[in-house]
Fold:
Amino acid sequence: MKVLAIVKRVITELLRDKRTLALMFLAPLLVLTLMHFIFNGNEDNDLKIGISDSISSDIIENINQDHIVLSHYKSHNHIKSKIEHNDLDAFVYQQDQKLYVTYTNEDPSKSSAIKQMLAQSIQKNKMTDIKKVIEKMPQAAQNNKNETLTLDNHYLYGDADSTYFDKMFPILMGFFVFLFVFLVSGIALLRERTSGTLERLLSTSIRRSEIVFGYLIGYVLFAIIQTLIIVLFSIYLLNVNLAGSLWYVLLINILLAIIALVMGIFISTFANSEFQMVQFIPIVAIPQVFFSGIFPLDNMASWLSNIGYLFPVRYAGNALTNITIKGQGWTHIFIDILILLVFIVVFIILNIIGLKRYRKV
Structure:
């Protein structure tokens, strides 16, 4: 009954706090929506390339592709001025058998795309020359060597329209579930302590475990609602790719929300003000992004990559990737789920022990 009384009070307090509810339910949706349109809006940007008339027509024909805007110039003098005044991403001219390319390089990703496109254009030009030679050969040789080669693409995961953002979004979805629950729960319990409510509870015969479970159950109800809203909004309105089971996605995010809750409650015991609670975000929440799977962990030093095993978002990100992109099931995610459950149990115990600093029972 004591636990239920705490749960009822927590729910009542949260329902009265409209700003906290907005932070939990609306802020994550706003952030995810902005990221969705920002990342997807940049996919079809045209590449603006200036070319000199000295370039052979075959190369120009190969360069002239979709999402590439070509601007023709009579000479290659004053390249810097041409790039700056015409907002070009690169300028290309030819001398003898060599192409000279000047990249603006303000956006290195555009430079890489142009490099790849030019390499493909040169390769196509070589293949055209070879084809002309073969066509001059006797008919018998043509029958043996001039066979048409076709390309048939298949994708194990996703399809031809898949982008890197399709990998990022499920992980970001889990991270924002973690971030906002961590922030709201930590500040809410801190407010309980600084207002004297927690001390009054501890002055009664109630047990520390009952206090922890009371707050936990009260906030978990809101965390589950928040998780449902974020996941369903992302999948059905933002059209996030989902190859696996929706129930597994909900399960992972709910477990992550509970972890954020118990971690937020635990961390709040080390803060004396709401500002100090916010200061824990760069220490506790932000580093989780780097080890969540958004950035390739294989490229990190082994000792740095191993630090990621201390963060729950790493396991949640791995499970969400397996579900949403690879369409895998229980056999591939149960280890991550067990580790997330271990995080929950450990921080519940730490919270119960942490209340000793306010009262020894």
